[in-house]
């Protein structure tokens, strides 16, 4: 098969949770540019619809739906809506994350809320969307983790800034767990013809303080933070047939910072 056909997402229905977020918007854009039909889903339907309309004005096939992944009824309503409106699901990009915990000494109630959304809720929506993909005959799951799921925090990045060094531990906990959950899924979903892979991105430039950008960038061999295009090719690869023999992998996308 021609490599352009392998990378094409034409005819594929793709769900991206958290598609209006910083990395999420880049992911939605890349998948739609590869001719996929992309659904962005989050709690804030207004934000999702704004993103979808922005891309539709460019001729991209993007739709917005609402879901609260911490609410099983909401997850099931999304599943039923996708089935009713599109008839199938080929790819699930598991990208949404909530950050209720504000630091190391934050109340345990914040960690419990994080578990409710980022662990229990995340697995709930993942399992239900995997079931929908299985009904389609198989497809791909792409989990979006973080390099913070692989390494401890580098607090020197914050030197000379007024940014807090008190980073929330729940984010590191959940992102690390997602990486090994990916390996689990690659095994247990194999008989349903579903592949599961993970992307662990580094920091995306988002107008952070200049000193932070300098501190960060000097540690990266390519000399910069990630930009809006850097994740697009990778997520398209893992969503497409071009990665048919890639399964259970976690790909670190950090410009060589941890080489």
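-> sequence recovered:
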């Amino acid at each position: 098969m021609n490599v352009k056909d392998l990378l094409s997402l034409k005819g594929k229905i793709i769900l991206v949770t958290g598609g209006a977020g910083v990395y999420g918007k880049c992911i939605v854009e890349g998948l739609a540019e590869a001719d996929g039909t992309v659904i962005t889903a989050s709690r804030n339907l207004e934000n999702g619809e704004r993103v979808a309309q922005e891309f539709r004005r460019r001729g991209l096939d993007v739709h917005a739906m609402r879901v609260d992944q911490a609410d099983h009824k909401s997850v099931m309503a999304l599943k039923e809506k996708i089935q009713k409106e599109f008839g199938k699901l080929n790819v699930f990009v598991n990208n949404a994350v909530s950050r209720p915990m504000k630091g190391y000494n934050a109340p345990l109630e914040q960690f419990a809320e994080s578990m409710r959304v980022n662990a229990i809720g995340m697995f709930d929506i993942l399992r239900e969307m995997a079931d929908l993909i299985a009904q389609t005959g198989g497809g791909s799951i792409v989990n979006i983790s973080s390099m913070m799921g692989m390494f401890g925090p580098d607090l020197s990045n914050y030197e000379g800034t007024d940014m807090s060094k008190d980073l929330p531990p729940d984010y590191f906990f959940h992102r690390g767990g997602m990486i090994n959950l990916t390996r689990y899924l690659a095994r247990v979903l194999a008989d349903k013809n579903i592949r599961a892979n993970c992307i662990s991105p580094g920091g995306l430039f988002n107008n952070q303080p200049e000193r932070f950008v300098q501190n960060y960038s000097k540690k990266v061999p390519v000399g910069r933070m990630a930009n809006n295009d850097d994740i697009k090719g990778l997520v398209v690869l893992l969503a497409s047939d071009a990665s048919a023999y890639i399964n259970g992998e976690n790909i670190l996308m950090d410009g060589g910072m941890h080489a």
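Strands lie at 13-17, 37-42, 62-66, 91-94, 139-144, 194-201, 250-253.
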